[in-house]
Amino acid sequence: MCQFKSGIILKNKVVLTPKGNESHSDLLESLGIADTHMNATKTFVRAELIPKNNDRMSDVKDWRYKVDQDIVPDWYEKDPERYVQEFRNAVEKYMEDWKKNFKFICGHYWTSVTDGNLTYYFLNGILKKSEFGKTNNYADSYVRNYLVNSELAAELKKEFGDKLVPISLDLTSMDGFKDYGTVEGDILAIPNIQLLMKFGENIPLIEDLYWLANPNQTPKRGDSRYVQYVCSDGDVSYGRCVYGRGVRPFFILQSDIFGSCDNVTDSQ
Question: Of the candidates 69, 104, 50, which has an alpha carbon nearest to the alpha carbon of residue 264?
Answer without folding.
Answer: 104
